[in-house]
Amino acid sequence: MPQASEPGGAGGKGGSGSEGGRSGQGRGNVRPCPICGKPSQQATRPFCSKRCRDVDLNRWLSGHYVIPGSDADEEDEG
Predict the structure, then answer these.
(1) Residue pLDDT, tens place only, 17-54
(2) Fewest CB atoms within 10 Å of the CB: 16, 51, 67, 77?
(3) Residues near 41 by Cβ (< 8 Å), separated by ≥ 6?
(4) Could you tell me how far CA 12 lies from the centroid of its own chain?
(5) How many Å is the Cα radius of gyration of the chain?
(6) Nearest-5° angle of CA 49, CA 57, CA 42?
(7) Cα(7)–Cα(29) distance, rounded to whole angstroms?
(8) Distant-in-sequence, close-in-space partners of 16: CB < 8 Å, separation ≥ 6
């Protein structure tokens, strides 16, 4: 019986929240903070704190998350 070993209760079907946890929208699903790895908090989701939220904002604003692309010259030629 593989359903008994799943976290979230017995049965695995119905409105117990076990399916919602897998889709990322259940209340019991606590994802780790993408900055430090601690459990995220409701008020600052997906981060654990205002500090980690600000660290992420700084990374965006400073260009840390830039995805390299082709040169602009190639785009202008076509």
Answers:
(1) 444 444 445 556 789 999 999 999 999 999 999 999 99
(2) 67
(3) 47, 48, 49
(4) 24
(5) 20
(6) 30
(7) 11
(8) 8, 9
